[in-house]
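Feature request disguised as a bug report, sorry. It would help if multi-protein outputs had a clear separator. Right now it looks like this:
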Amino acid sequence: MSKFSFEGLTPDSILDAVESIGIYAESGLLALNSYENRVYQFKAEDGNRYVVKFYRPERWSKAQILEEHSFAFELAAAEVPVVAPIIHNGESLFEHNGSLFTLFPSVGGRIFEVDNLDQLDVLGRLIGRMHQVAKASEFKERPLIGCDEYLDTAKIQLKNSNLVPASLGTAFYTILDMVVTETKAQYKNVETIRLHGDCHAGNILWSGDALMFVDLDDSRQGPAIQDLWMMLSGDRNNQLLQLDTLVTAYEEFCDFDHAQLKLIEPLRAMRMVHYMGWLAKRWDDPAFPRNFSWFADDKYWEQQILALKEQYSALQEPPLKLLP
């Protein structure tokens, strides 16, 4: 596990970094909700509000970060609403005392309502527009959503962490292995495009009357359905209605391969396992035990055993299909 933490990123060092590119803060720094990176909002002397993001070292290479930025600029040029990095003196990625950081405009707005079909209709069209741009080329530097990282590596991270209680280890790893095996059997021969990668309600914002994407930090190559399925919630009937709303609107701008519907449950399983592995991998960062203390409790692992059993059952069910 990585021994890195952000404790050395002090308010003074943050302000020094921002000032190194000619931006001077007028207000204090407001820490925003981010654990993988460190993100702060402030008002500058030029009257504008900014968000500065400091990237976790060794997570992405400079080339991978710049490819994310390039995708954002490409979307913005195509008039797909997205919060893109600010370009200063021809650059969007900066370095100060070994820390890589990027500046964004601070965009206010209201949250997206995942249970609102009218809003899902708008989102479906927006994702369709994004994917139409995304299909124009492929990522060369950003990774692929695949079983090696999301399942196998995550399992290794969990085992190395020793966070799974010994009393629950057999039950947990038995059902985990069953889910991993079944997921691998179903997640095959997947056609991929450039994705937002982490398209959930927290990364979508109403700004005025426009819906826009924020935070492309998890952009990867993957199946188009990855940017749609996380909007599904509730029972099967609710999910069918939500899926039909999303895909119908999506197809106004971009063709959708309906065969990818069978990937929803494998992708859900991959996200579950990857999330546990991510927490285990980052446990040496003091922010994680402080904010995810439940991850070390026996009760959490008991719940995960049940959740994995439910997901294994879901993998046996027929895939969702669009309404006739």
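(second protein starts here, but nothing in the output says so)
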Amino acid sequence: MTISPPSADVPGTDAALHGPVLAWFDTHARDLPWRRPEAGPWGVMVSEFMLQQTPVARVLPVYEQWLARWPRPAALAAEPPGEAVRAWGRLGYPRRALRLHAAATAITELHGGEVPNDHAELLALPGVGEYTAAAVASFAYGQRHAVLDTNVRRVFARAVSGAQYPPNATTAAERKLARELLPADEPVAARWAAATMELGALVCTARTPGCARCPIAARCAWRAAGSPAHDGPPRRGQTYAGTDRQARGKLLAVLREALEPVPQRALDAVWDEPVQRARALDGLVADGLVEPLPEGRYRLPLT
């Protein structure tokens, strides 16, 4: 599937989308802690790391505990990285905790403990990619950047390109389209980034879009085309039960709950299949999430 750029012939582009979406956001935006002024740039950065592939409801309690314990990057940087993994809890994809710890360390050492407001400097931080740099610059500092997460990509695919779903991986055409749709005014562009993300999360959802509640339904190219079914590569489903990812999670949970190094037998007890268990444990060690010790013991990393 190809994402087409906006044109005068496509219903719902540029300014025709901005007003309705921004007005809807003013009324329907959720009151989330990282959107409040007191969150600051660090709170925004923490939320962006946590929200990757994880729903808001699961993030909220961990986010609150995290900011209470580490209200500044320097506070997190002063702790061993294993403490970040421990505090990450059951959010999943725990390498994000290590990356956030590494970013906090770099912020402390290179930027005086303040999250940089320059996009290039954000992008240079460990664990910060194109999306996170744009999101922090936009949501924390009100800058004009195209912020493309799954929700935004789905809104643009439907409203502008007439496709039910975006491609599995972000394309150059999507990035170009997102840049072309950005309002010219910087603060308005930052609100637009948040508004389109919220619209995708609450209304233009993947499985059951609430078109009757959508502020741009009348301008949506996908609806105008008759809501055609997805004709691209099959959508990737996520499985968990019985996978190496589940095995890793079980092993890591034992280590998170232990204050002392854990013997091999404690890990053996939570996953029966020995080959998969060994592979999962090796992967955790290779990823820096687990530190092996003499006498077959393991712990969360200290360095």
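Even a blank line would do. Unrelated, but nice: The beta strands are 262-263, 291-293, 297-299.
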